[in-house]
Design a protein that fits this description.
The chain is α+β, with helices and mostly antiparallel strands. The protein has two domains: 3-70, 2-Layer Sandwich (Alpha-Beta Plaits); 79-207, Sulfite Reductase Hemoprotein, domain 1 (2-Layer Sandwich), CATH 3.30.413. The protein is built from seven helices and nine strands. It has helices spanning 21-30, 51-63, 87-90, 92-102, 164-181, 188-195, 197-204, and strands at 3-9, 36-39, 45-50, 67-70, 79-80, 113-116, 130-135, 138-143, 156-162. The protein has a five-stranded mixed sheet with strand order 5-6-7-8-9. It has a four-stranded antiparallel sheet with strand order 2-3-1-4, covered by helices on one side. A hairpin with a 2-residue loop joins strand 7 (130-135) and strand 8. The protein is globular. It starts with a strand and ends in a 9-residue tail after the last helix.
């Protein structure tokens, strides 16, 4: 019996990232008794199940409103705040666009990208590899956070005062740079230190104001 693993997430709404009871019921009914389900630190569920049944299971999960992503060394779905200031003020549509654009890209090591709709930062964005924080009508971007171990690090500011339409090109540029210049299994925080923040600013400068499509 061949087993394969994939990730499942509910996406996010005002109130945070939450699985609805009916979604969990569908998940439990379609993956089978032999499947293994693991909660990850990326606010995803990892599902390991029989490979020959996986395609149909994923189809049913998507029909229930769940998102299905690759597992392993890829960019993870956006880790967002609870949008406690409301959908419009906290930038829920911007966060959704980011989530759609970033998830599932192969990278040298798993990449966590966080979003906070205000300076309160309830999603702990500065502990993520890449972070976007909404500051009134603009956005600040940070890189190189590290949440684990005795050498936990706060992310450093890469760019300030970004427009909403600059965010997707900017993060795609960072992902591409990491794909091209990162070493296998190299943590993004170490990559930032090795490449240097100033060099990353130069390399991503051309991404500003590029079309998000």
């Amino acid at each position: 019996m061949s087993m394969r693993k994939f990730a499942v997430t509910p996406g996010f709404e005002v109130g945070g990232t939450m699985f609805r009871p009916e979604q969990l019921a569908v998940l439990g009914s379609v993956v089978g008794e032999d499947a293994r389900i693991e909660m990850t630190s990326f606010k995803q569920l990892y599902v390991e199940m029989e490979e020959e049944q996986m395609e149909e299971a994923q189809r049913l999960l998507r029909a229930a409103g769940l998102q299905v992503h690759p597992a392993g060394f890829v960019t993870k779905s956006l880790i967002a705040c609870h949008f406690c200031r409301g959908a419009e003020e906290a930038g829920l549509d911007v966060a959704r666009a980011l989530d759609e654009a970033i998830a599932g890209h192969p990278v040298p090591s798993p990449l966590r990208i966080g979003y906070a709709g205000c300076a309160l930062g309830t999603s702990e964005p500065l502990l993520k590899d890449i972070a976007v924080i909404k500051m009134r009508d603009k956005y600040d971007m940070y890189v190189g956070g590290e949440p684990r171990g005795l050498k936990a690090l706060l992310a450093k500011q890469l760019h300030a005062g970004l427009e909403a339409e600059e965010l997707v090109p900017m993060i795609r540029s960072l992902i591409a740079i990491f794909q091209e210049q990162g070493k296998k299994k190299e943590k993004f925080s170490r990559f930032v230190d090795r490449i240097t923040l100033e060099q990353l600013r130069k390399l991503t400068a051309n991404a500003r104001m590029e079309p998000a499509g």
